[in-house]
Amino acid sequence: MRLEKSKLLPLKKIIIAIDGFSSCGKSTLARQLAAKLDYVFIDSGAMYRAVTLYLIQRGIDHRDAAAVEAVLPQIYIHFERQASGNLTFLNGEAVEQQIRQTQVSDLVSPVATLSAVRRMLVQQQQKLGESKGIIMDGRDIGTVVFPRAELKIFLTATTTTRAERRYLELQQKGTPADIDWVRHNLEERDRIDSTRADSPLRQASDAVVIDNTNLKPEEQLAMVMALARMRIGS
Ligand code: DC
Predict the structure, then answer these.
(1) What is the number of domains present in the chain?
(2) pTM, 2 dp
């Protein structure tokens, strides 16, 4: 029996939250899932990076919380979908390359501790998820941004594995980096992200934990796709 398209029930759209430590492959997994499910993918870390870039460009010291808060209304971040993935825009300018540079990586965790910055970005992130059908990765997505997300994944891997992956990624992009600096930067970001007072990196109690140290990307994708299909009900 063939079902006419008009008689098929529309698939339920859900929210998928992916949290975890730095360089666990959260964005790669989120991007792959979004392509498979035809969902929107949002890298929330890119938003914290864009704010950090803005502060650097304007010479604003992130330790001056009042000065940072004063300029937040001047920051507009949006994403544009391209075949190669999402591009991040800061006040209309494409900044995808710039937000990945070491200068931004070094400062983004302290900037992400600022409550005013978090309030502004969490509000925008929740707006992006209003019509569901979204996969967002970050540190507080399952705990703060979308505490009622239908599927929450918490990714982890050993520090050595994560540092090696990040180093290779930077090399492939032609960004000069030193493996010791990469490891130090990872550890430092994890420490700041996990110990900050406002929305620290935590595993949500209802998250599915995946340690991908010894998993191939396709194995991980198959595991999460199976979970997503269960939650979507297809
Ligand atoms: O995922 P990333 O490495 O691009 O994130 C950059 C920084 O932003 C990271 O140090 C933690 C912070 N961040 C956060 O505090 N909350 C999020 N939802 C996403 C990122």
Answers:
(1) 1
(2) 0.92
